[in-house]
């Protein structure tokens, strides 16, 4: 397994739709956390509206597949998904991976 830093850039003016979909989105993220696939996630502060999700996955494609089932992506609220393999070199998480 490898770590993939994934950025969501949200569709402009989608705040209300994201608010309505957020409970389902968070339930999906909780499932990924319980399955050991989601390391951490949360929104960036400021514009553009975006978020960081860090996945533990076997490949970049698998990390992308995890985003496909996300209600935010499924409902068309994410304009761009950027997935990059990330090496954790230091810090509190480094001893876990």
Class of secondary structure makeup:
alpha+beta
N- to C-terminal separation?
9 Å
- Counted up, domains total 1
Number of helices: 3
List the helices and strands and how they pair.
Layout: E1 2-10, H1 15-34, E2 38-43, E3 50-57, H2 60-68, H3 71-74, E4 78-85
Antiparallel strand pairs: 1-3, 1-4, 2-3
Characterise this structure.
- The protein has helices spanning 15-34, 60-68, 71-74; strands spanning 2-10, 38-43, 50-57, 78-85.
- It is globular.
- The model has no long low-confidence stretch (mean pLDDT 95).
- The chain has one domain (2-88): Alpha-Beta Plaits (2-Layer Sandwich).
- It has 97 residues and is an alpha+beta fold.
- The chain is 34% helix and 32% strand.
- A 4-stranded antiparallel β-sheet has the order 2-3-1-4.
Task: Give a quick set of tags describing it.
97 residues, alpha+beta, Alpha-Beta Plaits, 4-stranded antiparallel beta sheet, 3 helices, 4 strands, globular
What's the short story on this structure?
By secondary structure, this protein is α+β, with helices and mostly antiparallel strands. It has helices at residues 15-34, 60-68, 71-74, and strands spanning 2-10, 38-43, 50-57, 78-85. It has a single domain, classed as Dimeric alpha+beta barrel (Alpha-Beta Plaits).
